[in-house]
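#help-structures
NK: newbie question, is this the right format to request a structure? protein is Fibronectin type-III domain-containing protein
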Amino acid sequence: EQAWRSIAASLILVFWASGSLQEGPRNLGAHFNNKVARLLTEELLNPKCFTQQLEDLACFWEVSDLLKEPKNQSMYSFCYKFEEDSFLQSCNLTVENTSRNTTLYTCFFQRQDISAFSPLEIKVFEGLSSNNTLYTRTIYVERLVFLDPPSNLTVHFMESSGQLNVSWQSPPIAYMENSIRYEVSISPEGYRPQRVESTSGQTYYLLNLKGGTHYTLAVRVKPNGVSYDGYWSEWSQEVSVAIPNGLKTVLK
């Protein structure tokens, strides 16, 4: 703890003297802001962190006061190190005023500073003193995966067997091809939505259809919790299909 404080103190002074705020990466993906908004609502721990493809990492937190002069130096210092490291690194924070009348502070990690399967220790200090610790958290990058939703959801009615063939395309999942699972949302018109978990890949067969009914389907994805874990993605775009009246089977 004392080593943290002494090294952090020098880093804070360097950060404060620099007087510059790092701009966030430009290629964050179409779903990045939605992921941030969801974690701000659902995640209790601070700073909140996630990775989209294991080669990126963002940690952030929100404060209730607007920063009146966004170009001035940050009042916070973000420091981190891996357990086996003997030195700290600092991250220049990106600062953004939000539409919720809050200020969002974000650290975008450099690619060379991201490593899975090793504990990453994080400390956020308030003001100029390393004695004022705001947040402390230890994370594992591979347990904080937040994938994009599946795409190209396709539904085919197979008249010969009276079933729906549901398929989709997975999001970018480098290194995790065999470590993810999907959940399919099935909403037959006039019935309560039903969720079915599918662990057999990118295809799902829906049986026991009710003739003359519209079905609306969507799918989402997350790591399976073995080697990798994280958050459920957003639901994919919905697809609807009408089942012919001729079917005699009923939905169970």
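mod (FA): yep, format's fine, and the tokens are attached above. DSSP finds two helices and 17 strands in the chain.
NK: thank you!
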